[in-house]
Amino acid sequence: MPSLNRVQLIGRLGKDPEGKFTPTGRKVTHFSVAVSNRWKNKDGETKEYTEWVNIEAWGRLGELCQEYLKKGSLIFVEGRLKTDRYEDKGEPRYYTKVVALSLQFLDKKPTEEPVIQVEEEEAEYEPAAE
């Protein structure tokens, strides 16, 4: 049976990207993106709900995120969902994130917008060091 694991988001960074190295020396960058939804209720009031999404970018893509993005940056990110499992005081915990495969900066003029894309190789990814 075919399956699809793709996520597309447009939102603003909640804080500056943070880079780390895995025990094997691979670079990984983490940041969160706020994605807002606005609507009017039956009384005509504008309501807003913000969802925070954790993003993980590997290798060169992560380096570029750390170099060019900052808190408040508007981006389009495309990637895949990934849930990590870890133990906290003997209890299993789960952490869902988006592993970025491509990213576009939306704060710049269209002629200056870099589009960053990576070819995903499943073997390249490993759990990030916490």
SSE diagram, text form:
Elements: E1 7-13, E2 18-21, E3 27-40, E4 46-58, H1 59-68, E5 74-88, E6 91-105, E7 115-117
Descriptive terms for the model:
5-stranded mixed beta barrel; 130 residues; 55% strand; OB fold (Dihydrolipoamide Acetyltransferase, E2P); 7 strands; mainly beta; single chain
- Please, how many domains? 1
The counted number of beta strands is: 7
CATH superfamily, by name, is Nucleic acid-binding proteins
Sketch the major β-sheet: 5 strands, mixed, barrel
- Proportion in β-strands: over 45%
Number of helices: 1
How does this model look, in words?
This protein is mainly β and 130 residues long. The protein is 8% helix and 55% strand. The protein contains 1 helix and 7 strands; from the N terminus they run E-E-E-E-H-E-E-E. A 5-stranded mixed barrel has the order 1-3-4-6-5. Strand 5 (74-88) and strand 6 (91-105) form a beta hairpin. The longest helix has 10 residues, at 59-68.
Précis, in short:
The chain is built from 1 helix and 7 strands. It is mainly beta and 130 residues long.
